[in-house]
Amino acid sequence: MSFVETEERRALRAAVAELGGEYGSSYYVEKARSGQKTDELWAEAGRLGYLGVNVPEEYGGGGGGIGDLAAVCEELAAAGCPLLLMVVSPAICATIIARSGTEDQRKHWLPRFADGSVKMAFAITEPDAGSNAHRITTTARRDGDGWVLNGQKTFISGVDESDAVLFVSRTQDQKGNLRPSLFIVPTTAPGFTFTPIEMEIVSPEKQFVCHLDDVRLPYDALVGDEDGGLLQLFAGLNPERIMAAAMGAGIGRLALGKATAYAASRQVFRTPIGAHQGIAHPLAAAKIELELARLMGQKAAWLYDEGDDAGAGEAANMAKYATAEAAIHCVDQAIQTHGGNGLTTEYGVGMLAGVVRLMRIAPVSREMILNYVAQHSLGLPKSY
Fold first, then answer.
1. What does the pLDDT look like over 264-289, one tens digit per residue?
2. If we measure between CA atoms, which residue out of 302, 296, 309, 308 comes closest to residue 245?
3. CA atoms within 13 A on the CB side of 292
4. Do 226 and 219 contact (CB within 8 A), yes or no?
5. Where are the alpha helices (DSSP H) in the chain?
6. 0.85 exceeded by the pTM?
7. What residue ranges in 57-203 does DSSP mark as E strands?
8. Whole-angstrom Cα distance, residue 255 to residue 252?
9. Cα(289)–Cα(268) distance, rounded to whole angstroms?
10. CB neighbours (10 Å) of residue 247?
11. Nearest to 315 by CA among 373, 264, 382, 266
């Protein structure tokens, strides 16, 4: 593993940063506050091949790895356009289908993931399960040559702008620990309904409660095996954590950029406020924390792309934890640097606070990451 990105990766970052700069924070915030979607940016990113950099070449993608997709996600976030569905559709869903789907599923879905013409949400969290995926009660039963699904999911992102949702369920006869079965459910399927959850976060992507009431699906809606096991599921969850870390890193960079520009130009006494250590040192500390977190994210992506799922699992969890903490520090210090201006709409810093605070909770809480590291990295007894 090199600590210096390849020339191709750097060129990808530069190109995506240029695209993101053409839209910027004002575009993103305007869409979010008016209840619109970032369809123009998504479509252009797809047309230019950025959404499909990790899709195999034989299916119309760039043939790269999750590290390339994470770079795209980070650069868009750093430009003020953190696209949440990038964490879900091309990262989780496309990866699972590429690894576990049938050839027909790959041919049908992967080219459309690659060009951005399709979006797919991902549904695992349930109201009574929370972080305990083994308590999932969404079930699928065989019915003739197809399936019937029943259950409920909550906090599912972007269902209203998705063509389908990849549901994590269990088959009806499963007992004990979860052996996940994954089903592609069109958002237009009879019996599938979804209700928005009112959130205090400025984002174009909305959250939903999803209900499955006797939703009938053909047999080929199943992705992978009926009892595919957790490895099939974590083929998508490790990329999810890597992408969440990349998005957090981008937002942290965005906040630090705003803070340093303000500190360099804002003059109250005889010198810019950035000349004072009370301003400069906290920003420098936030920069150090952010760069350390980014390194762990790059390590996680490298391990995943090398096929080391166990190593990637540890590193991806650590990266997600570290980046969430670093991004929160960056945004908080950016607000403090701006003073009262940090809470105004004009400067675009205060609205980042809710976004990064969410990163301590989703897509996996900091407490569950600490549980993971305590148990798997330190060898301590399981506490839950």
1. 999 999 999 999 999 999 999 999 99
2. 296
3. 12
4. no
5. 7-33, 39-47, 66-78, 84-86, 94-100, 103-115, 229-265, 277-305, 309-338, 352-358, 366-372
6. yes
7. 120-123, 139-143, 146-157, 164-171, 181-186, 192-197
8. 5
9. 28
10. 27
11. 373
322-379 residue pLDDT tens: 999 999 999 999 999 999 999 999 999 999 999 999 999 999 999 999 999 999 999 9
CA 167 to chain CA mean position, Å:
17
Contact 71, 253 (CB under 8 A): no
Cβ-contact 283, 272 below 8 angstroms: no
In the 8-state DSSP scheme, what is residue 163? S
155 backbone dihedrals φ, ψ, rounded to 5°: 55, 50
Amino acid at 51: L
Cα(76)–Cα(24) distance, integer angstroms: 9
Q: Nearest Cα to 228, choosing from 185, 184, 182?
A: 182
